[in-house]
Write a structure and sequence with these properties.
With 240 residues, the chain is an alpha+beta fold. The protein has a single domain (3-239), classed as Phosphatase 2c, domain 1. Helix content is 34%, strand content 26%. The strands form 2 sheets. Strands 2, 3, 4, 5, 6 and 9 form a 6-stranded antiparallel beta sheet that branches. Strands 1-11-10-7-8 form a 5-stranded antiparallel beta sheet. Strand 5 (102-108) and strand 6 form a beta hairpin. Helix 1 packs across helix 2. The radius of gyration is 17 Å and the shape is globular. The termini are close together.
Length: 240
């Protein structure tokens, strides 16, 4: 039986929470379960709208289209969310330029299937912590090209610049990953309000620490706030 705990928090510096999460341990369309984390961007209320609208569109699309292949279903739903957000932004000047990151996960037996756009992350945690998703961000591109090391990237002034977002371009390209789950694996999905405030090692120690799933998620929020709480936080912890 899957145990899931989710949370969002506005952080200490922002007035509006633009992060949005969705969890379903039950079937959604042909998918056995579905977990989504989104981090909106845009002007007043636009990022808040974008993250919620993207998640709701994806759930609606997967529920209604009855696509049996998981990656195809996720891709179709993400494409539709991109089109709808792009259209809304074109109709309302107050929403111009809005968009959202997205990380999605589905567990099929022992297979973990993941899609992501932007810099929200999915980690697999057991005896170590492993980031499964790859950030679509300026600093990640620099790291891959050899222009920055990981420590420089953590504190870079352009760390918040993302290179892909739902709603940013007419055509969206998500990345897809598949991982075989092992006994004892825990899955953490989170926005950069967590991963920018805490190192991977700090995240690992909290998730592997004492307390219930709820207490460990609460500890992530408190620790991110203790490190500055500069952004909203969206978190899902899944224990298959």
């Amino acid at each position: 039986m899957i145990k899931t705990v989710s949370a969002t928090h506005v952080g200490l510096k922002r007035k509006l929470n633009q992060d949005y999460v969705f969890t379903a341990d039950r079937e959604v369309g042909y998918l056995p379960n579905l977990y989504l984390v989104a981090d909106g961007m845009g002007g007043h209320k636009a990022g808040d709208f974008a993250s919620k609208y993207a998640v709701e569109t994806i759930v609606e699309e997967i529920s209604s289209k009855k696509e049996k292949d998981t990656f195809a279903a996720l891709n179709q739903a993400i494409t539709e969310a991109n089109s709808r957000i792009k259209k809304k932004a074109g109709e309302d000047d107050s929403m111009y330029g809005m968009g959202t990151t997205l990380v999605a996960a589905v567990i099929e037996g022992t297979a973990l299937k993941v899609a992501n756009v932007g810099d929200s992350r999915l980690y697999l945690i057991n005896e170590k912590i492993e980031q499964i998703t790859i950030d679509h961000s300026y600093v990640e591109e620099m790291v891959r090209l050899g222009g920055l090391d990981r420590e420089q990237a953590r504190n870079h002034e352009k760390k918040n610049i993302i290179t892909r977002a739902i709603g940013a371009e007419s055509i969206i390209k998500a990345d897809f990953f598949e991982v075989e789950l092992q006994k004892g694996d825990q899955i953490l999905m989170c926005t950069d309000g967590v991963s920018n405030m805490l190192t991977d090692q700090e995240i690992f120690e909290i998730i592997k620490g004492e307390g219930s799933e709820e207490e460990r998620v609460e500890c992530l929020v408190k620790s991110a706030n203790n490190h500055g709480g500069r952004d909203n936080m969206g978190i899902i912890l899944i224990c298959p």
